What we know:
Keywords: Acetylation, Aminoacyl-tRNA synthetase, ATP-binding, Ligase, Mitochondrion, Nucleotide-binding, Protein biosynthesis, Transit peptide. The chain is α+β, with helices and mostly antiparallel strands. It contains 11 helices and 15 strands.
Amino acid sequence: AHLCSTASPVISQDVQVQGRSFPRDDFSNVTAKILQRVGANLHNEPHHPLWIIKERIKEHFYSSYMGRWGNPLFSVHDNLSPVVSVEQNFDSLLIPPDHPSRKRGDNYYINRSTMLRAHTSAHQRELVRQGLDAFLLAGDVYRRDEIDSSHFPVFHQMEGVRLFSDHELFSSVDGGQHLSLFEDSGRRCGQKQEVHSLEAVTLLQFNLKNTLTRLVHALFGPGVELRWVDCHFPFTHPSFELEVRFQEQWMEVLGCGIMEQQILNSAGAGHKAGWAFGLGLERLAMILFNIPDIRLFWSRDPGFLQQFRVTDIHQPISFKAVSRFPPLHNDISFWVPDSFCPQDFFELVRCVGGDLVEQVTLLDHFTHPKTGRRSECYRIVYRHMERTLTQEEVRQTHAAIERTAESELGVTGRY
Ligand code: FA5
Ligand code: MG
């Protein structure tokens, strides 16, 4: 009877998404709550803060990068369906079969072969295959992630890709006509892939970081503090993350890197090399408009949305940081079965607690020395975005979470 079948999906019915029907199997874990958000396309809703940030990024790229005929260099795509094949989301990006990012617990699978995309990178190969050399792609993405003020199971990313031929990359360099993107006897190392020349990677990386630094300065002004962090993605090498200082903390806003050549080869662009990035639109909008909680992007409250009704996207938005209503918290501890995974519990909390839940954190865990049984304790922080919650409301929701965790996840309460 419950909307949220995390542990035991109903095997009988098909999964319906966007008027299409998919057979359910043992991998299906997408919930009705999540499916309701498919098609909301907040990034395409005029005046929504995610739309404004998308439009500002588009404008920046349109006005800063011209093609040979004075046309915008980057084409923009924002209407690709979030329903993708598992092959697109992972294999096409060289993500190995046993890679942790494929875990059923971390993704929304429609079934074993189809899923809600976990990142906009899922479309890199198809757009390169279409012959595009420079594009931006915005869309909704879905992850069973942790729960806090900067993570939400549905969020929005913008992907950017730019490819260069030998000539395009080296023509502006003195003596560049003698340089080449590729090198025969190269070796993979921290700096580069085996097939790339060091000159090519140096210029590509400079172009990538310069492009993104200019974007961040265009969005936030020259005073913004940012830093580059080395990291790893299976589809780029070398790879970096960009962090921006926000409310006394470093907030990760994007991942990027030099595209793995094998992806370009398989997309029919083997004579070019390029970079890619994927940025979080919510994260940038939170910094720009000083929005304290990621759930606010789903608010239908006119008091919130009204503030973004500007006639020109560049008009400064005097967003009054919404006054936050006080939080209430309540802890829950239980014995967990061996099959237990925290993401299943997070999903259940999302289903039962809805948008009242601001954060779930693991407070404590221990293993009984004699029985070997494992116990975990989570703190759930409740806060309504538009009013003060009552103790009674929280108590009822919390009790419902306890009951559902017992019946659906097989945990034994210690309350
Ligand atoms: C990726 O998704 C890579 N596809 C990015 C990429 C693209 C790398 C192209 C290289 C080349 P990551 O999982 O770090 O990486 O997510 C990218 C950004 O999405 C993050 O920096 C963050 O801004 C945002 N993000 C990630 N998870 C969430 C979430 N649960 N809620 C809101 N924003 C999120
Ligand atoms: Mg990351």
